[in-house]
Amino acid sequence: MEYRKIKDEEDQIEDGVVGDAVTSRGVSPSTVTSFPTGSVDRLRWKRKMVVTIALTILTSSQAILIVWSKRAGKYEYSVTTANFMVETLKCALSLAALTRIWKNEGVTEDNRLSTTFDEVKVYPIPAALYLVKNLLQYYIFAYVNAPGYQILKNLNIISTGVLYRIILKRKLSEIQWAGFVLLCAGCTTAQLNPTSDHVLETPLEGWMMAIVMALLSGFAGVYTEAIIKKHPSRNINVQNFWLYVFGMIFNALAIVTQDFDAVVNKGFFYGYSLITILMILNHALSGIAVSMVMKYADNIVKVYSTSVAMLLTAVVSVFLFDFHLSLAFFLGSTVVSVSVYLHSAGKMQR
Questions:
Q1: 264-to-248, 254, 261 alpha-carbon distances in Å
Q2: Which of 189, 277, 290, 335 lies 20 to 30 angstroms, CA to CA, from 97?
Q3: pTM (predicted TM-score)
Q4: Runs of H (alpha helix) within 259-298
Q5: CB-CB contact of 159 with 278 (8 Å)
Q6: What is the Cα–Cα distance from 346 to 350, expressed in whole angstroms?
Q7: Rounded to an integer, what distance in angstroms lies between the CA atom of residue 311 and that of residue 333?
């Protein structure tokens, strides 16, 4: 989801959930340039600081909130209902953004919700992929701790890049390939466990789930970019709305097949706590924060946020979950941060 928003923000800057006040109010370019240069620079700096802090906090707290929402090692709430609420909140935010656009610009061919079957029929595939990926996100914590998850989820960079090369025939730079190798080395180094008989702290099941999640995320990212290119003029919020609608449908089916009896007997929100609500808000707002980075900041901010988030997650986990911050983890997370930077630099070079 986040990847699709990034690509759309690169291809077209539109007024939306993170719409610029200038574009949303229809101010002409000449009006914008009339502001003093110092004021514009200060405004950009403040925006960059806000989105950097927001993305860092959201990214670092994501895994912590999921683990923290457990009670006695298990989820007392239904993870399928939690996913449904995330999709519902995202859908509501997209609709709110569209309402703002309709008020300012009116309903046009590009921002209307009414559509054709041919346009909508492509959304169930990425929605289904994200459903499985988001459910695995909860179950992987049976094998991986919060800091380990923050490290391993960067594997989706490799899967996305390789799938782009295979499916869309997009050439990768040498720097990006070097970044992929470093990323694998960093993930492995961070998982070294010198205090145990096992070489790696995360068992094979955890690695397999992380790889599957990375493949699902990568394939969904490639597929959704193809959707965007098919209708490039379509407003991002319209595309998000229909994607989230199908996400709600698939999550509703997951509730019926997995947690129907529990929901009927105990209620839809059984087992929910303040931590659960914060976790749902975190998941819904994370994608918006990534879009804000692309609109108000740059790729370096995302790299910085990812790097700091890994260390913040580890430090907080020391106090909350008795995590042991080892030298191997610190070195591994440093290598992962460098590899993420190289991937970003390789994209700019390409």
A1: 18, 14, 5
A2: 277
A3: 0.75
A4: 260-266, 274-296
A5: no
A6: 6
A7: 8
